[in-house]
Structure formats: C-alpha cells, structure tokens
Automatic annotation (TrEMBL):
This is Penicillin-binding protein. The keyword Glycosyltransferase applies. SUPFAM superfamilies: beta-lactamase/transpeptidase-like, Lysozyme-like. Residues 318-590 form the Penicillin-binding protein transpeptidase domain. Residues 52-227 form the Glycosyl transferase family domain. The keyword Transport does not apply. The chain crosses the membrane at residues 7-34. Keywords: Carboxypeptidase, Cell membrane, Cell shape, Cell wall biogenesis/degradation, Glycosyltransferase, Hydrolase, Membrane, Multifunctional enzyme, Peptidoglycan synthesis, Protease, Transferase, Transmembrane, Transmembrane helix. One of its GO terms (molecular function) is peptidoglycan glycosyltransferase activity.
Length: 711
C-alpha cells in the first residue's frame, strides 16, 4: 500500500515537475521571442495645412493608432464576442477552445477550426509567420502566455485593434473607421462596430464595398455573438440586424496634383530635418506644410491644357513654383505636366534664365551701388564689347534709353552696357547673396547666358527679394513636424539675407510693374497688382525657335516662376513661341485660384516713390497770333496742343538767322506770349519739350514766323 502511494506520488510529482519545467521554458522562450520594438507599428504620416486640415497621408501601411480609451466599449465587445468570447477569463490560451478545435480537427482528419485567442492572434501577427505547422502553433502559445504576463487585457486589446487589417489598405480600427464611415472610432455605433469586427476574418470576402450582402450577413453573425455573450439583448439584436450598412466610404488615393509637393516634403524632411523617407512613411508624424490647395490644384489643372504650351507637339513641358514671399513657405509646386512620383522634378532642373537675369545681375546691383537710377540714361547703340556682340531682339536701337524702359522693353544692349560699367565681380557678389552661384565670367551673364543655368525655385526665391523690401527669404516646404505624441520635433528655419535697400527694392517693383502693364509681360489679364520679368532663350538649330521661356513675378503676397520648354531641345523638339505664354499661364493661375484680387503694392515708410515716366510729346500744332497791346506794342501769342502730362516743361526758342536762344519756358500748358517783338528782324519761334527726369530735350516743334499780313 505504501509503495503504491509512493509510486502515485512520484508520478504526480514528476508530472508537476515536468509541467513546471515546461512552464518555465514557455516563459523563457516566449520572453526571448518577444521584441518590444516590433510593437512599434507602421503609422501613416499626415500632411496638414496651416489650419490643421488634412491634405493627404504618407504611409507604407495606412494606420492611425488610437488608445483603447478612444474605442467605445460596444466596439470592444463586438471583437471579443466574435473572436475570443473568453478573452477576459483566460491567460493567453483558451483550453476549452483548443479542445473543441482539436476534436473537430480529428473528426475531419485535417485542421478545420482554430482555437486561437486574441492574444495568440496578436502574437502570430507581430512575431510569427502565417504557416499552420504545430511548431508555429507552439511558439504562438508561448508568446501569448508571455504577453499576458507583461501586459493588461486592455493593452493587449488595444494592440490587437491597432494591428489588424480591415481591407482596402486600412490597417487598424481608426483607419478602418475613417475609410468605411468617415468618422473617428470614438463615434462608431454598435452596428458599425459589429461590421468592422466582421472584417478581419476575410477583409476581401466580407468587404462592404465589394460584397455588401455578404458583409451584412457577417455583421449579423457578430451581433448574434454579442447576444450570446450577454453584450446585447435579443430585442437590440433584432433592431440592429434590420439596419442597412450606412457606409460613407472615403477611399483616399494620392491626388496627382500633390505629387510634386509630396516629393519635395519628403526630400526636405531628409535634408533639413534628418528624417529619412522610410521613417517618414512609417513614423506617424504630423507634418504641417504651407501648401495652398487652391493654387496647387489650379496649377495642376491648367498644366494639363496643351494650349498653354507652344511646342511643336503636345510633349512640351513646364514647371511652376509659388511662394509666400513674407515667410518663404512654398504654396504650390509643379515638377512637370505629367509628373510621376520620384520622377524628373523640373522645378529643380537648371535652365538658361534669359532676360529674367537682368534685374538680379545688372539693374538691382546698379541701383544698390548708386551707379544709376531708374531714369538714368543708358546706352542703347549697336555696339560690340570686345568679342561679345549682343543685339536687341527687335533690331531697334534708340541711342539712349532709361533703365525704366530698358527693363520694360527687355533691351539687351543697355543691360550688357550697364554690367560692363558695374563690373562682373560686383554683379556675381550680388548673385551669391541671392543663392545663384556661377563660374561664368563674361558679360553674357547680363542676358542669362550661364553655363549651368538657374532653377525655377532659385529664380522665385531670388525675386522674393524685390517683393520683400530687399530681404531674401529661404523657401521651405515644411512648417513643422510633430511626432505621435504631439511634440514638435522640427520647425522651418526662417533664414533671411539683406540684399537690396528697401528704396531700391521699391524702385525695382515699380519698374517690374511696368513690364506687366506696358512691356513684354503685358499679354493676358490679371485684376491685381503684379510685377515681373519675362525671359527666353533661342534655339540656334531652327530659325525663330525658342529653347526656354520664362516668367517670374510677384504680387503683394506671393512670388513665383513659370518655365516652359522641352527636357531636351533639338530640331524636332522646340517651342514655337516665347515668354508671352508663361506670362499668360502665371496670370491665369492667380486669377482662377482667386486669392489675390484687390491687393496693391504698398510703399514702405520712409521710401521715395517712383513717379511714372515722363513721355515727351511730338508737337506739330504750334500756331501764332499777333495782337496789339496798349502803347502800340506787338505781342505774339504762341499756342500748341500740350501733353496730358502736366509735368512736361516746354522751352520757347527764338531763331534769328543762325542764332537760337531760349526766351522762356512754361510747364504743363500749351501757350506763351512774346512781347515787344520787332517784325523787321523776322523772328521765328518753335517749341521744344523737356523731360525733367532724364534732363533731356525732345523733338523741336514746327516753326512759326509772325507777320502783319496773312494769306
């Protein structure tokens, strides 16, 4: 008897010891397998505008993790009821469920039913593979038991709900709630929670988008399970099962209008803030960007219209960038008409800038160095500069021209002549301040003849200097970045460089306004203040062909650049027109986006205004009339048709023989009296208009000779 009892005791003790050793092994192995870094799930990064409104998401997996406190209890109950009804009772494995599954597997001769708990499913999804071997199942049990040792039931359920796949690219319950119902998980109703709980078993088979009838059937199964688990009453289930799906599907695809901007954000995150593209797509950041969706979407729509791009075929390309010149934030960017993600971004490709370089390399520096003023006269004679032989595009030369008109009409000779006076080294020093570096040392810099060229982004940034009282702002695509905890981890650097005085920046703004109103950029219509400069380069292979066409301009709020051309210009690929097309496109983007109407340029305090240019009239209407004054004196009344500009001064000349003398002057009117004339000396009179801005006389009028007798 004693021996038998001892034998039984030994067996029991052995079993207990074996179980203890097994349990210790389970804990050891499970703990070894668990790597907490794997709980850091891939989370979607949000791009939001300045108001916090979501623009798009960047992700490897579209997931937006939420805490279990944000998930309503009835939604939690739906998952527990259908996936693991004894979830709150077991410690990682459900022996009853496993026994039931084994029994059914033996009867069927194969694996037909699973006995996995929610904890086991979490263990499998995060740490193991999907194979159905017994070894994998054993590992799953080990990891599940260890998870229950480490974490609370609520934490395990939270990780499970954030990890599972719900179909159509949605990972985690928050992304699923947004996808199917366009609401946060906290707002889900009972039947909506039941529908989501129905999906993990077969996200495609039970998709309410693809298979609504099957989805309703599966949802109703979940509701029945909730009744059996005492989470719902029979009356509630009957009422809920009668409801429709009530979907509000928000399947967000990447808007093609945003592709260039997204790429620029990803690049800036890596280059300026040291967040790799992989980290950005997985890290669940919130990235605030300065994008203006009206500008971005309008630019995209107009870029699709071939009529704006004057190429020999419909393959002509373009690039566009628009900045807030007060902050440097980039509002809109287009890397091409058919831009594909991580493709050729033409906003960063260097091109020959043509005449857009004149204000930056020549006239702005000449003003700042006090070499010339807006109404200083510059040489406009056909001439060579050593071996360099520039020409005005229209082949016309005025002899002398003001800086104002040289800019307005984009004359080449005055620009080269001024650079020659200014000095190339001085001009390049200013270009360096504008972040435009060039190894070129010739006068062709004045006309944009650069070896490497300039990008649209560089040009827009450089012109922001004129728009912003002489201060250059650094462009940026990211305002700030927050991590998943809401902490700001990066902000835009507000870099500024003083390049020109506010006086000279204002002078340049007024002259560039004239380019748009009356000069080379006058094509098209824009109801608002706009200053800018055109530019184009020719292609020598075909007569009249254009290689690059530009417009760079700014309003009181924004500054931007448009480039047009081919990625490679040759005899079969070139533009047939010039800078009028980018000028038109720029104006139309601003107009259709409806962001700038009614605004005007405001003169900074303490700055002298630049009056409109005085235009001297040609006078062919001089007439004379003799009158007799008291005491028998003869007086000649000279009259002519004056200019509407009351600033014009008129010199009155008297000619006798070879002598010519100024005998008087009047301002702003068309009459003058010459008293006490001597008719026997046969005096002749004429008028010469005078420009007080340029200190220049105009063309003499017709001549008149007073006489007592008339025909």
């Amino acid at each position: 008897m004693y021996k038998r009892a001892l034998y039984i005791f030994s067996i029991v003790a052995g079993i207990l010891l074996f179980a203890l050793i097994g349990y210790i092994m389970i804990l050891f192995f499970g703990s070894y397998v668990i790597d907490e870094k794997k709980f850091v799930m891939n989370s979607a990064t949000k791009l939001v505008d300045q108001n916090g409104d979501e623009i798009t998401k960047l992700y490897v997996e579209n997931r937006d993790p939420v805490s279990i406190e944000e998930v309503p209890k009835h939604v939690q109950n739906a998952f527990v009821a259908v996936e693991d009804v004894r979830f709150y009772e077991h410690h990682g494995i459900d022996v009853k469920a496993i026994g039931r599954a084994l029994y059914k597997d033996i009867l069927a001769g194969s694996k037909v039913e699973g006995g996995s708990t929610l904890t086991q499913q979490l263990a499998k999804n995060i740490f193991l593979t999907n194979d159905k071997s017994w070894l994998r199942k054993t590992k799953e049990v080990m990891v599940a038991i260890n998870l229950e040792q480490r974490y609370s039931k609520q934490k395990i359920l939270e990780m499970y709900l954030n990890q599972i796949y719900f179909g159509h690219g949605a990972y985690g319950i928050q992304a699923a709630s947004q996808l199917y119902f366009n609401k946060d998980v906290s707002e889900l109703t009972v039947e909506e929670g039941a529908l989501l709980a129905a999906l993990p078993k077969g996200p495609n088979s039970y998709s309410p988008i693809l298979h609504p009838e099957k989805s309703i059937e599966r949802r109703n199964v979940v509701l029945n399970s909730m009744q059996k688990a005492d989470f719902l009453s029979a009356e509630e289930v009957v009422r809920l099962q009668g409801r429709t799906l009530s979907l509000d599907v928000q399947q967000k695809t990447k808007n093609p209008a945003y592709l260039t901007y997204i790429d620029m954000v990803i690049e800036e995150a890596a280059e300026k803030h040291h967040i790799s593209s992989d980290d950005l797509l997985r890290g669940g950041y919130t990235v605030t960007v300065p994008m203006n969706r009206d500008y971005q979407e309008t630019a995209y729509e107009l870029f699709q219209q071939a009529a704006y791009f004057p190429g020999v075929d419909e393959q002509a390309q373009g690039a566009f960038v628009l900045m807030n010149h007060r902050t440097g934030g980039v509002l809109s960017v287009m890397g091409g008409r058919d831009y594909v993600q991580k493709g050729l971004n033409r906003v960063k490709v260097k091109r020959q800038p043509g005449s857009t370089m004149k204000p930056l390399a020549v006239y702005g520096p000449a003003l700042q160095e006090s070499l010339y003023k807006p109404y200083s006269l510059l040489s406009d004679k056909k001439q060579n500069f050593g071996q360099y032989k520039p020409q005005n595009i229209n082949g016309q030369y005025a002899g002398k021209v003001t800086m104002y008109d040289a800019i307005k009409d984009s004359k080449n000779i005055p620009a080269v002549w001024t650079l020659n006076k200014l000095g190339i080294s001085t001009a390049k020093a200013y270009l360096t301040k504008l972040d435009i570096e060039t190894e070129d040392k010739g006068l062709s810099i004045a006309l944009g003849g650069l070896t490497e060229g300039v990008t649209p982004l560089q040009l827009a940034s450089a012109y922001s200097t004129f728009a912003q009282d002489g201060e250059k702002k650094e462009p940026y695509f990211i305002s700030e970045i927050k991590d998943q905890n809401g902490d700001v981890i990066a902000k835009a650097e507000q870099g500024t460089t003083n390049v020109f005085s506010n006086q000279n920046a204002w002078y340049m703004t007024k002259m560039l306004e004239a380019v748009v109103k009356d000069g080379t950029a006058s094509v098209g219509k824009y109801e608002g203040a706009l200053a800018g400069k055109t530019g184009s380069t020719s292609y020598a292979g075909v007569k009249g062909a254009t290689r690059d066409a530009w417009f760079v301009g700014y309003t009181p709020s924004v500054v931007g650049a448009v480039w047009m051309g081919y990625d490679r210009t040759d005899n079969q690929h070139y533009l047939t027109k010039g800078s009028s097309y980018p000028s038109q496109l720029f104006k139309d983007i601003l107009t259709e986006a409806k962001q700038e109407t009614g605004k005007v340029f405001k003169k900074p305090k303490g700055v002298k205004d630049l009056p409109d240019p005085i235009r001297l009239p040609i006078i062919n209407s001089l007439q004379q009339e003799l009158t007799f004054q008291p005491f028998g004196l003869l007086t000649v009344n000279l009259t002519w048709e004056p200019s509407e500009d009351k600033r014009v001064v008129y010199y009155v000349y008297e000619k006798q023989g070879s002598e010519r003398n100024v005998i008087g002057k009047v301002k702003g009117k068309g009459s003058y009296e010459v008293e006490r004339i001597n008719l026997f000396k046969s005096p002749t009179y004429y008028i010469v208009p005078y420009n007080s801005q340029t200190k220049e006389e105009g063309m003499p009028s017709n001549e008149v000779t007073p006489t007592l007798f008339s025909d």
